[in-house]
Amino acid sequence: MHDIGYSCDITSSIEKSDQVGKNFELAVVASMAFFKWKNLDMYKLCNGNKSTERISKKVGMREINKDTGKSNYEEKQEAFTNRTSVAFMVDDCKWNVKESPKQTPKQGKWHDPVDNPQITLWTQSGKYNPANAAFGVPRPNKKYHQGVDLFCTEGSNVYACLDGIVESITDSPKGQGQTIVLKITDKEQINYFRQRRRDYNPTYDGEKKQGEGFDENSNHIYLVYYHLSYILVKKGSVYAGQVIGYSGISGIRDGTCGPHLHFEIRSERRCGDLTKRCNPAYYVYYKVKMSPEEKKKQEERMKKGQLKDFYGRK
């Protein structure tokens, strides 16, 4: 590390090694030096591979946390999967892979907000209750659920559904977390939106079709995305299918067993309760019946417990 301008010792004592936890720049450089020192192949963390067990074995022995029952290997894996890999955009790292030439984005039709949209089966505390994720269902705090919770593990791609404008980007640590609001006004895009609407009958007890005053024929529509872990766009134009951020659990103070994208459709930007909101199920054809593999994936995440990501960018 001396060769690249760092005159510090991070190996001879615990006190000195603590520098890594206080200096992000030093932490990154130290990690790079460690990879080089141990002859670790960094390219094995490319192309979708996120396993850190190989590296954990190089760092130290396997130990069990008495409080959580998890090994230090598991805790390191969770930290890398949920935070580090998102911050360093590991999903975008490709090695020895030929990609198709980039094309100029074209105006497109509807794109779902997440891949393979499905209702979130388990609640924040780990209770099996899919109805809790549906639009209009009363919550324990007696407020109505204003959108739909689409299951997605932390760090999943979140997409613009239509060509539109990023109207606002906000961060509300006590509730919505990192949030994007898209405004759709283009006539062709509004027409795609109207054509997308399907016949839908509420599936769950308490689920509503829409709130008072929602206008499906409005000349402007707002699409709202909550709980993001990272936002990739700024105010301005986006196109259908563009990745605008990564999913997360920001804003959920106590963490959750069921990570999701909270997604809303409104005919006005500012509105209370269910007013001028519509059940997204009319436009997002999400699954309520899942394959055994899909259900197992949600169950496995639920068993990891109420993971926390309060501010989103950890």
UniProtKB/TrEMBL annotation:
Disordered, as annotated region: 293-314
Coiled coil start-end: none
Residue ranges of every copy of the M23ase beta-sheet core domain listed in the record: 218-269
InterPro entries on file: Cell_wall_metabolism_enzyme, Dup_hybrid_motif, M23ase_b-sheet_dom
GO MF assignments: metalloendopeptidase activity
Name assigned to this protein: M23 family metallopeptidase
